[in-house]
Every structure is written in structure tokens, then in C-alpha cells.
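PROTEIN SPECIFICATION:
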Amino acid sequence: MKSLSKLICCLLIVSLFTACSKHEEGHQTIHQAAAIESADECHLCGMLITHFAGPKGELFRKGVTEEEGKKVHKFCSTRDMFSFYLEPENKRNVTTLYVHDMSKSPWDSPNDNYFIDAKAAWFVAGSEKTGAMGKTLASFSQQSDAQKFADEFGGKVLSFQDIDLSVLM
């Protein structure tokens, strides 16, 4: 009887984790990343995005109308994206964030085929590499790639949850 109870308990726990991960997967695919075009301007500073090296960012916000909810906000750097996102009035209204995976994309011209979910990404803050606004956050899909980058160019490896306004200063 004890082993049956343990089995049922384990099955319930596995089911709970599976249900949560399916919900999270569904959450991650609300929007698709959009290509950055040559005329696109940074939503925060207004600079032309493609004129600068380093990872870029995009985000989608909740919209009052369906059209507003589909509008992508593009940023010339991950730093600008986080500067916008971390403002309390913006943070609660953002549904999806994307950044370039710099382990697969060249620093000087990031490839839009390699956008990743920013909430699952690893970041290097304080490296010698610069982006549109100077210091930026290098973004990676794998923690090991972020650590290799930090070993080569300096900086500290952080998860999405570790990033706050003090990191951007």
C-alpha cells in the first residue's frame, strides 16, 4: 500500500511539472521574433538599429486591441531593451522578449535567424564589447557560452532574473 501511495504521489508531481512546462512553452510562442530592417529605429532612443554592433532586442506588449498586441518594439541594444522593460509600467505589460544568441551570431552584424527567448537567456554584463549605447549585455542561449565569452572579454554571467537597473548602470 505504501509503494502504491508513493507511486501515485510521484505521478501527481510529474503531471504537475508537465502541465507547468506545457503552459510555459505556450507562453513562449505567443509571438515570433521579427527581422530587423535597415530603416528600423530603436523604440527607446530612436537610433537606426542596424548601424551598430552587438546584440539587439525586441519585445511585445499587451495591447488594448489585437493590432496593438501584435506590434513589435525593437531596440538597438539589449541594454536599451532592458532599460525600457525594467520600468514598472512597462514590465507588467510585456508578454514576450527576444535577444540575439551571440554564440551563433557575429558581434558586428547579429543574425536575426538567431533570436532567443530573453527570459531563458544568459547575459554577460560588464564586458569590453560594446553595442549601440556603449556597454551592453551580451546574450546567449547557453550558460557555458556566456561563461566562455566572459572569460575572453571580461564581465559577469547573469540570468534574466538577475538583471535590474543597477546592472545597467
About this structure: Residues 31-168 form one domain. Residues 2-28 form the longest helix (27 residues). Confidence is low (pLDDT under 50) at residues 3-29.
